[in-house]
Each structure stands twice: as structure tokens, then as C-alpha cells.
Amino acid sequence: MWTKSYSVVTKEITKEQIWNLFADVNQWPAWDKGVEWTQLEGKFEKGNHFMFQPKAGPKLKIRIVEATENKSFTDFTKFPLAKMYGAHSFEETPEGLRLTTTIKVQGPLGFLWRRLVAQKIVDGLPADMEQQIKTARAL
Questions:
Q1: HSE value, Cβ hemisphere, 13 Å, CA-based, for 80
Q2: In the chain, N or C: fewer CB atoms in 10 Å?
Q3: Domains of the chain (ranges plus CATH)?
Q4: CA distance from start to end of the chain
């Protein structure tokens, strides 16, 4: 199993603002330049799923396996012989709101999907979180 996390602390947004940003899945392409399109039918809640098309990548079905409003959510993507989880948490601290994303890949071909997909996600987290904060601030 391979796991990597990235956190940032900010006083620029609230947990409600960042939750609303993520919960509006169909608007992700407006602020995430690596996303071609997304489609969620229904609510952003545990058990539901959305379709996700990254730029220069295959269309994916991503399942929401945990969702606690204004606190955290975890998504799950199944690859051939591997699974990837993206855990996102929003924690209030005395220093500000701590945003943490943890990417976990497991399975017999986890090493391959880590190189093809997960490492690119992790490498982009600092810039992605900066853009998320900037966009959520306007909500």
C-alpha cells in the first residue's frame, strides 16, 4: 500500500465554503484546470458516485464512500487490480482551517496506478489546494 498526504492551514475560508466547493461536483472544471468534465446526479453523499473525465485521461466512475458535511469526504476509484482512495478533511484549528488530502493506492497493480495516476495527483496538491482556497473564498 502507498499513501501520501498534503495539508495546508488557512484563515481565508471556512469549512462551509470548502465543503460547498467540493459538494458542487458539476462545477469542478470551473476551478480545476486538470478536469475536462464531471457529472454528479443526486446528492454529494455516501453511496453515490460521479463520472469524472480528467484532461488527457480516461473517463472514471468515482464513488463517494464517506461524506460528513463540513468535515470530510472520501472518494474511491477502482482500477484493474488496484484501488485508489482520496480522503479530504477540513479541521478547524487555532491557526486556521487545516485542509488535508490523503491519497492511498493498494492492490497487486498499485505500483503501476501510483505511477500513472496517484503520483501526479499528489504532485499537484499544493497548487490545487491554493486554487481551491481562492475559489472557495468567492463562495
A1: 2
A2: N
A3: 2-137 (3.30.530.20)
A4: 37
What are the grid coordinates assigned to 12, written together? 481565508
- How far apart CA 21 and CA 62 sit, in angstroms, is 17
Instruction: Find the DSSP H helices in 10-118.
Output: 15-23, 28-31, 110-113
Q: φ, ψ for residue 119 (rounded to 5)?
A: -65, -35
For residue 113, which phi and psi values (nearest 5 degrees)?
-70, -25
User: How many Cβ atoms sit within 10 Å of the Cβ of residue 104?
Assistant: 19
Query: Could you tell me the pLDDT band of residue 58, with boundaries at 50, 70 and 90?
Result: confident
pLDDT at 1: 95
Q: How far is CA 135 from CA 110, 129, 139, in A?
A: 32, 10, 7
Mean pLDDT, residues 66-91: 98
Q: For the segment 23-55, what is each residue's pLDDT rounded down to a tens digit?
A: 999 999 999 988 999 999 999 999 999 999 988
